[in-house]
Amino acid sequence: MIDTESRPVQLLLLLGQHLATIVGFVLALLLVSRILRQHSRPATSIAWFLFIVLVPWVGVPAYLVFGGRKIRGRAGRKPGLHASPPVLPATNFADDSARRLVACGLPPPRAGNAAELVTDGTQAYERLLALIDGARHSIHLTTFILADDRVGRSIVARLAARARDGLAVRVLVDALGSLGARAWRLRELTRAGGEVGVFMPVLPLRRRWSANLRNHRKLAIFDDDIVLTGGMNLANDYMGPPLADGGGSRWIDTCAEVRGPAVTDFAQLFAQDWQFATGQIVAVAAPPATAGDITLQVAPTGPDVAGDPFYDVLTAAIHNARERIWIVTPYFVPDEGLLRALALQARVGVDVRLVMPRRSNHRVADLARNRLLRELGHSGVRVFLHPHAMIHAKHIVIDEHVAITGSVNMDARSLYLNYELAVFAYGRVATARDAWWIERLAAQCEHRLPPRPGVLGRWAEDLSWLLSPLI
Length: 471
Fold this sequence. Notes:
Layout: H1 7-38, H2 42-54, H3 56-66, H4 72-75, H5 96-103, E1 110-118, H6 121-134, E2 138-143, H7 150-164, E3 168-174, H8 186-191, E4 195-199, E5 219-222, E6 226-230, E7 255-259, H9 263-278, E8 294-301, H10 309-320, E9 324-328, E10 332-333, H11 336-347, E11 351-357, H12 363-378, E12 382-386, E13 395-398, E14 402-406, E15 410-411, H13 412-416, E16 420-426, H14 428-443, E17 446-447, H15 455-467
Helix pairs in contact: 1-2, 1-3, 2-3, 5-10, 6-7, 11-12, 12-15
């Protein structure tokens, strides 16, 4: 016997399913059109297209939350970064990279700096605490990760003590990277008189929120006179007191201590990030006096910078290299343009080296890179994989002209999406220092390519590579 009373309900449910399907299809078409307009990188467009078409009920909301590179409605509210002095004649630039960065609107190179590379996590931790204790009037700090561990707690305690001393202490953390730390220790800092800014909240309906645009810059400025910058987050994996026997090991990472006129550009960058996150204006002091003989150029990249200047300048520098291209990176999933440039330079005899961990903390990134490394190896690129330690440092040395360090990884998220910070150092002194450290690191590694996988392994590598622009 047919239940005639339930038939209208069934018809309504069926109609609702059809309407939902039509709405989802139309929305998917609209988003595909948007993807083609917004993404200049074919790999990213293809990855999002497949994700939305094959699993629309997951891909559509995922794109609405995570998609878009230079999201105008959110990132557009942050002031752009521009060089403050007039553009210099081309003959005055230390290197073609410097000229190109200025042409993209970034600060010019500054002569007269001292820059010391710190390659040990214990030394970096002790240097940071000493600079906190020795600051006279201000401490400005930006980090991606402020961990809920003994290192994070000890740093916050030192900062709170200086705030109680009357110093202007401002700490800017990324909302996602420091999610676990914000509720506990940062209250200690604010109660002591310090200030805390949260960059890009991840929850919708919050002011200036985004789940995708992350501030990956690492920067500590003391009295507008001294800067620590590099790849290290404030966590025990990166820095801290000496580890006891059997206490594990830290990641291999670096930071640089900078003094001199370039400090003003770091301070200006912090001031703009702070104003975007908090609405408060921070005054920037006059440039410090000459402190050394190194020429540095501060090169932030991200949604607050027009175009992709770091990527463009790096690609040009690789094509112009004549002797060597040495790269240290934790993750290696660049686009086709960089891959072709590296392969071509290796074929014509340039010494191209890649130094990275055999296994990083992101398994998908490792799977995505393995096929690329094998292809580059067959082109003559020398691949060095550290058998034990996680390498988190980011360094690039090209010929004897330029050494690049900072927070930028060699992957799509870092190159095209995150708020990042790179520092270009020009001349033989800077490049020789970084090259010496890279040679020592490579000596600890295995000169080998990732082994060829089986059928399932090849599927995993291909799928990871396809999804790599999204993660």
